[in-house]
Amino acid sequence: MGISCRMFLLDMDDSLYRLPNAKFNQILRDPTSCRFTRFAGTRMRMTDVAVELIDRQPIRVVWITFGFLAFDDDGYFDLAAYDRHQRARAELALALPTTEPKSERMVVEAANRFVAQGGRWTPSRALQQRIDAAALEQVKCARL
């Protein structure tokens, strides 16, 4: 048994593109190393899926997240936008709960919540099923 992480990009028509982990790691290290002209000037929906493997065969989806990857007008990955959302999500996850003051007036620092929320999306049920099927290799999708 093992776990495999699979990343997919979705275009405006909900077409799925498999983004290999090695290529994603490459663009994280050096965004100018890979150019995706078909995504130039867009903010692509992205999903990260962890699947359970038995004998190297995917059997079920165990974890999934939804986010965005932005590309500049030349088709290069926008690392700054991605980093901003990831940092906001991490800060929210690591934030210690505080006790609420008894006062009726309360100011809440919500900037990170807005940034983190702007980096997430939720698929329809049908699209979720297509993503799951692609992650489990039940349907084919283009590879980047």
Q: What are the defining features of this structure?
A:
about 140 residues; alpha+beta; five-stranded mixed β-sheet; 4 helices; about 30% helix; globular
- Please state how the strands of the largest beta sheet are arranged side by side: 4-3-1-2-5
Order of helices and strands: EEHEEHHHE
Distance between the termini: 27 Å
Largest sheet report: 5 strands, mixed
Which outline best applies? globular
Give the helix tally: 4
List the uncertain runs. Answer: none
Summarize the amount of helix as a percent range: 25-40%
- Quote the beta fraction: 25-35%
Number of domains: 1
Count of strand segments:
5
Q: Radius of gyration over alpha carbons?
A: 18 Å
Output the structural class: alpha+beta
Average per-residue pLDDT, rounded, comes to: 86
Account of the protein in words:
With 144 residues, this protein is of the alpha+beta class. The protein has one domain (2-79, 120-143). The protein contains four helices and five strands. The protein has a five-stranded mixed beta sheet, with helices on both faces. The longest helix is centred in the middle third of the chain and has 16 residues, at 79-94. The protein is globular, with a radius of gyration of 18 Å.
Summarize the structure.
α2 packs across α3. The chain has a five-stranded mixed β-sheet, with helices on both faces. About 30% of the residues lie in helices and about 30% in strands.
Note the topology.
Layout: E1 2-10, E2 16-19, H1 21-29, E3 43-54, E4 57-70, H2 79-94, H3 111-117, H4 125-135, E5 142-143
